[in-house]
Amino acid sequence: GKSAFFLVTERKKLHTAPVRQVFRLRPFHVLVATGGGYVGYRKYEDYRLEELEKRGIEVPVKLASEWEVALYKSVPTRLLSRAWGRLNQVELPTWLRKPVYSLYIWTFGVNMKEAAVEDLHHYRNLSEFFRRKLKPQARPVCCLHSVISPSDGKILNFGQVKNCEVEQVKGVTYSLESFLGPRVSTEELHFRQASPGNSFQQQLVTKEGNELYHCVIYLAPGDYHCFHSPTDWRVSHRRHFPGSLMSVNPGVARWIKELFCHNERVVLTGDWKHGFFSLTAVGATNVGSIRIYFDQDLHTNSPSYSKGSYNDFSFISNNNKEGIPMRKGEHLGEFNLGSTIVLIFEAPKDFNFHLKAGQKIRFGEALGSL
Length: 370
Fold this sequence. Notes:
The protein is α+β, with helices and mostly antiparallel strands. It has helices at residues 2-54, 66-74, 77-89, 94-108, 126-130, 176-180, 200-204, 250-255, 259-262, and strands at 147-148, 153-160, 165-169, 172-175, 210-219, 226-228, 233-241, 265-272, 275-282, 290-292, 311-314, 324-326, 331-335, 339-348, 352-353, 360-361, 366-369. The strands form four sheets. Strands 2, 5, 7, 8, 9, 11, 12, 14 and 16 form a nine-stranded antiparallel β-sheet that branches. A three-stranded antiparallel β-sheet has the order 1-17-15, with no helix packed on it. Strands 6-13-10 form a three-stranded antiparallel β-sheet, with no helix packed on it. A hairpin with a 2-residue loop joins strand 3 and strand 4 (172-175). Residues 5-25 have low confidence and may be disordered.
């Protein structure tokens, strides 16, 4: 009896060891399978939407319900983005660089012919590769038009701001005030004094007869990740909203109302020759860090911020009454991966955009002019 029991337990041991190993591997396999499946699904969805757009078929808007947004926001995207940021900083052995970057280039259709350094071995880590600079002649800056594209990307939407609402994609809006936050003090920006009947939108417009315009540019992961000044203007104020880090790709922008108001963003405000001007860099999943070159105090996706709050920084001081003057085309900042830039600015009624929604655009090309 004893020997039979011994045999059974021995047999059990033999059977349990491999099973335990399988269980040890399973979470990783599940993560890879679900992650890969989701990426595949999103790719297919994006491809389907692009095909419909090409055929001129209107894509119906299907908004997420409150519980879906809450569920999405419960995913620790900030934590994941910080982990991704750390991973990006890890130096890759020279032999691994070419295969890793080549896979990325193939997946996202990166054009390395435009890169200042085409040799893949030169980039020590993913972060350096993402933030690669372009050859100087790769992006000529248009001199004829007053506003140029600050980055490479896809035009999601543009037009006049109406009823204090801005469209993130056709048919899906967000509130101008939730996006920019409360008005900055009048000393910093030459705002019209607020009269009780004026809406937030009217308070931003400084000159009689002007309108407020907006333009949304989506940077895909394969796009050049730096952004530049879209016009000659003066930056007087920075507001940083910590927020979530949800994906900002066009499919999600079509699904979640006020997406850009949920997400971490850096709002730069100031003025140009026609009045109010602002550029907002919106963070996204895996884009934990937004850098503004002239703003050393800015730290995005840091664990110490509480969501819903924002912090302000003024570039106007006793020593500097002018703020930060930016020339059209000048380097302004960078993302660690694809993301979104939103321009909201004041201009006379005869301002015209030279764009089509959904078109591709490159840094330096015209957005619009008078």
